[in-house]
Amino acid sequence: MPGKRGWGWWWAQLPLCLLLSLSGPWVPSSLGKPKGHPHMNSIRIDGDITLGGLFPVHGRGSEGKACGELKKEKGIHRLEAMLFALDRINNDPDLLPNITLGARILDTCSRDTHALEQSLTFVQALIEKDGTEVRCGSGGPPIITKPERVVGVIGASGSSVSIMVANILRLFKIPQISYASTAPDLSDNSRYDFFSRVVPSDTYQAQAMVDIVRALKWNYVSTLASEGSYGESGVEAFMQKSREDGCVWAEGGEWPRCPWIQHHGQRQHRPRGSPGWLGSPRMANPWMLLGASSVKCWSLPLSFVINL
């Protein structure tokens, strides 16, 4: 009922409300490949104000393909959350009276270069001519599907994707709010002045890890991070804070973005008993430890393994 909304409802509206302030089930009005837009995996909802959306509905493709398998939790669930928020706002007569929010939602396929290509849709209305001077052979005006103007973008998920997209959106002064990107680089307002996020930076995560190391009185650690700005920046922040606290950083490792665990499980980088890695009688190094998992594809956040 109006006036009795819980914190969960307001939290779901936060990215949309922030975008509006800055810019002054899967059932869209148009789904598929609209005229003039070569995007097969997209959602288009008509409205007075159009918001962009970037979600990793698919994972990274292989063998030359841009997109891979569907990502339910990090992709479809988040997309549905945006659609749900739009539906709630549009059906609330008091929140935005006489204004309907629309959307143009695209699939990043968990790849920064693919997301950049898709994001050109958001700036298309600002760089294309309206075609009023063009006439058909009969003398009549041409039938042109004008691209909708996007006033703000919600996304993306991965930090590397958000960084790539932010570089083009800032040129057109389009606000961008991420729901999951945590790289410390994105806190640089001189480079990403139109970027905001509703999640904390990895700097706090690195400090929390250092606090754990200090609380357990460990002083010799190694790091293992996922490839990309998220893991690499997180490791750098952890190393800096650990040095300030007198913790000895032994060795660092980088985990490919989306490897087959079974393949890397056969790699032998360190002998058994060497300091810095978690060891056991049957597992000589963290590659074997991770290789024992049944999970085929991981995108690891900043991690660390302690020598016990």
TrEMBL record:
Signal peptide: 1-32
GO MF entries: G protein-coupled receptor activity
UniProt keyword list: Cell membrane, G-protein coupled receptor, Glycoprotein, Membrane, Receptor, Signal, Transducer, Transmembrane, Transmembrane helix
PROSITE patterns for the chain: G_PROTEIN_RECEP_F3_1
Domain of life from the UniProt record: Eukaryota
A cellular-component GO term for this protein: plasma membrane
Subcellular location: Cell membrane
Residue ranges of every copy of the Receptor ligand binding region domain listed in the record: 78-247
Name listed for the protein in its UniProt record: Receptor ligand binding region domain-containing protein
Species classification: Eukaryota, Metazoa, Chordata, Craniata, Vertebrata
